[in-house]
Design goal:
The protein is an alpha+beta fold and 90 residues long. The protein has one domain: Alpha-Beta Plaits (2-Layer Sandwich). The protein has three helices and four strands. The strands form two sheets. Strands 1-4 form a two-stranded antiparallel ribbon. A two-stranded antiparallel sheet has the order 2-3. Bound molecules: iron/sulfur cluster (SF4).
């Protein structure tokens, strides 16, 4: 599962992000080319543009499921887990 703490700095601000686990396999760029791009210098993908249409949203969700190392995350999910952990520790 992607971790917000390891989020790459290139990601466009918003819901979706890629973290440092990315192995530069090209699956997300192929699945959702409008939203994912490659950092050629360092060899990884990042969210170039957050989804703006239902179709792009669907393709980003598809990219999450297709990423072989689970390097793509949705911020809301992580915030939810963070909150759950905080409350569990009270
Ligand atoms: S699918 Fe996952 S591992 Fe492959 S380039 Fe995209 S973020 Fe990186």
């Amino acid at each position: 599962m992607a971790n917000l703490r390891d989020k790459l700095s290139d990601n466009a601000p918003g819901k979706f992000f890629v973290d440092s686990q990315c192995i530069d396999c090209d699956v997300c760029r192929d699945t959702s080319p409008a939203n994912f791009r490659r950092n050629d210098e360092n060899g990884y993908s990042y969210v170039y543009k957050q989804p703006e249409t239902d179709e792009e949203l669907e393709l980003c969700e598809e990219a999450i499921n297709a990423c072989p190392v689970e390097a793509i995350g949705e911020a809301e999910e992580n915030y939810g887990m963070f909150a759950a952990t905080c409350f569990a520790n009270r």
